[in-house]
Specification:
- It is a single chain.
- With 262 residues, the chain is of the alpha/beta class.
- It folds into 2 domains: 126 residues, 3-Layer(aba) Sandwich (Rossmann fold), CATH 3.40.50; 118 residues, Rossmann fold, CATH 3.40.50.12500.
- Strands 2-1-5-6 form a 4-stranded parallel beta sheet, sandwiched between helices.
- Helix 3 packs across helix 6 and helix 5 crosses helix 10.
- The chain is globular, with a radius of gyration of 18 Å.
């Protein structure tokens, strides 16, 4: 008799994540179905993780992104995802497709490649959400919020509203750029986030989209759906769901929102 070893014989997914974050892997591990595994490559680079060339026709991968892709290429992966919402927002329209092509040039044509933004778009479509309430991490500054709103509008999505989570009085005087370095990423509490989303979600929103792969939230998705009676999608949930489908799997995953049933 052998003990479970989490060997991903059904699917292995490679995920690029922010070098200093713990949330993406933890949330994926919580949701992963049996016999699937996630393998992270950590990236330290400014957003976007791949820079446009002068005429915005191609992107140059950051050093960490290229290095990780070359390692992933030999791992017989079922799918690879660039798990960084901010890169897509800052990169703008067309960036996701350009970085997918550049990564595919290294990984080869047989490994599906996606980005967190493409995953979210696929999830919104599957859930028939056309006017979501956007929820963003507390460390997203005003410029990032504006860029994010423009990004969705450029892709034909008009959000019904937007909320930047308030992490509490102890963080209100901390500059946005210092919140994560000062430990907010490891001090996140999901209960206040749940209460703020429930209170602020507008009636005309036909769903909720929580952006930011480093934003802890999958534990409240099902409860929010029950209270709001509409789909609730998060960044990590959307990426796992989409990657599993790219790998040809439709497992039964309960407790993390209705998306996994779509």
């Amino acid at each position: 008799m052998t003990a479970p070893d989490n060997w991903g014989w059904k699917a292995r997914v490679g995920m690029f994540i922010v070098g200093s974050e713990a949330v993406p892997e933890a949330e994926w591990w919580a949701m992963l179905p049996p016999h699937t595994s996630v393998h992270a490559a950590r990236v330290t680079a400014p957003a976007p993780w791949a820079a446009w060339d002068a005429d915005r026709t191609r992107v140059t991968l950051s050093e960490d992104l290229e290095h990780g892709a070359r390692q992933f290429a030999s791992m017989r992966l079922s799918a690879v995802v660039l798990g960084h919402s901010s890169s897509s927002l800052v990169g703008g329209k067309g960036w996701d497709e350009a970085v997918v092509q550049s990564l595919s040039d290294i990984l080869g044509p047989d490994i599906p490649v996606t980005t967190n933004a493409l995953d979210c778009f696929a999830a919104l479509k599957a859930a028939a959400v056309k006017s979501p309430f956007l929820v963003l991490p507390p460390w997203f500054n005003d410029a990032t919020l504006a860029v994010g709103l423009g990004y969705f509008r450029d892709h034909g999505i008009e959000p019904a509203g937007m909320l930047r989570h308030d992490p509490g009085p102890g963080w209100r005087d901390v500059p946005f750029a210092e919140m994560y370095p000062k430990g907010l990423g490891f001090a996140q509490q999901v209960e206040p986030l749940y209460s703020q989303i429930k209170a602020a979600c507008p009636d005309d929103a036909d769903g909720v989209l929580i952006l930011g792969t480093g934003f802890r939230c999958v534990g409240i998705l099902a409860a929010l759906e029950e209270d709001l009676r509409r789909p609730v999608i998060s960044a990590n949930q959307a990426s796992l769901w989409h990657c599993l489908r790219l790998a040809g799997l439709r497992p039964d995953i309960e407790g993390y929102g209705s998306l996994f049933g779509r």
